[in-house]
Amino acid sequence: MDILHTPTIMLSSFVTLVIFAIFFGLAWRQERKSFELLLWSSAFAIGAIGFVLLTLRGDGYSFATISLGNALAVLALAMIWLGLRAFDNQPLKIASALLGPILWIAVTYFSEYVRESVTSRIVLYSILIFAYSALIALEVFRSEYFRRLPSSYIVAFVFATHGALYLARIPLIVLWPLAGNTAAGTAQPLWYQLLTFELFFHSLAGGFAFFALVKERTQQRYKLASETDALTGVPNRRAFLTQLDTHLAAGSAKGALLYLDIDHFKAINDRFGHAAGDQVLVEFAEIVSRAVPADAFIARFGGEEFAACLPHADRLDALAIADGIRTSLEARRLGTAKGVLSATVSIGVAFAEGHEDSHALISAADAALYAAKTAGRNAVWSMDADGVARFSAGLANGGTAATALFSLKTSRGGTAPRPPNVS
Q1: Which of 2-11, 121-130, 277-286, 399-408 has the lowest mean pLDDT?
Q2: What residues have CB less than 8 Å from 262, skipping those under 6 apart?
Q3: Cβ pair 422, 416 in contact under 8 A
Q4: Phi, psi (degrees; rounded to nearest 5) at 132
């Protein structure tokens, strides 16, 4: 006696597959660059066609219903795996995806033993379903990108469980064989009824999990865009201040803050054009990114101003890193239509110890930067524990080969008040 009505469950699974095929197809029409949406839409559509063929099978072997129908079901699972790889920007392994369906068709068509044995077909089919389900689960577990999306764990669980249950079908089919044609409504063993219901649950949960993945990725992209400087690709002021506040809130905050300002940036834009100025900003962001340690975080504060927090650097390390940034930019030459472009940077350094919040630390670094600017630029100045800015590295009296390229005159006053828009 059937506890669960198998044909009804199979019909529900078919409807679920069709609905998800339509929804993912519509989503792909709105976002054509998301190839995974097309793959998932195709996977659910192919799975639905496979279901139709399987429900039409009779008592004997038929190529269309047995070989092709099951091959399409395996192919649907393989395309879901390809969709996950596309979602993660990984190369698509088309040959591996097609291997299972082709193997199924070849064995069931050419092997008379497998063709006529329901048990052997179920064993082979179960192995293939387990293999592709395991690939899907492993695709999630091995990817750092997927680990940042909570719904990926649901995907991994759903497909790992699905594969394990299909693997369990192998001993079950031997101990409790099926009773005739499963598509004809014949009463079947309880394990088969439960696994058929699991197939419906798997289709439903898997489809919703993929939609959740897409939603979480979209939210992550919006969040990243809101915290990233569009030109240089480094975090913006908002993201930097959030990280800095978190670091300082740790209680025993250490490290240093570098406040960096490219010298005479307005002159660069005026003489070489804004496109060249943008290139200077991009190059400088790369210089800073390469110079700081792995645990550091940087940002473009706006205009030509940048900041870098070195969470675990002591005074000597921080000043060495700052001077390395300064000398790297000074040595960089950019060819433009209006001549060779070179630039320098002034850097103010403050240390986290003794500063209770980000505002106080940034103010101290800004005061050191102001000292570097008024003393002649192209230098590193740092704020001492007593609140006095002192020269640390660079040209203490100002004047560089870079400024000569612009035919600019630098201020050498040293003690003059900071102008409103020093650059």
Answers
A1: 399-408
A2: 268, 280, 281, 284, 304, 329, 343, 344, 345, 423
A3: no
A4: -75, -35
Structure tokens at 139: 């695709």
Q: Which two tokens stand for residue 168?
A: 């369990």
pLDDT of residue 119: 85
- Cβ 45 vs Cβ 21: under 8 Å: yes
Q: Is the pTM of this model over 0.70?
A: yes
What is the C-alpha to C-alpha distance for residues 178 and 192, in angstroms, rounded to an integer?
8
- β-pair partners for 48: none
Instruction: Give the helix/strand (H/E) hosting 363.
Output: helix 358-374
Residues 6+ apart with CB under 8 A from 338: 271, 272, 273, 276
Tokens of 157: 């669980």
- Each residue of 162-171: pLDDT tens digit? 999 989 888 8
What average pLDDT does the segment 155-166 reach?
93
Does residue 345 carry a pLDDT above 90? yes
**CB within 8 A of 274, min separation 6: which ones?**
none
Return d(Cα 339, Cα 336) in angstroms, integer. 5
Rounded to whole angstroms, how far apart are CA atoms 17 and 15?
A: 5
Please give the structure tokens belonging to residue 6: 């198998």
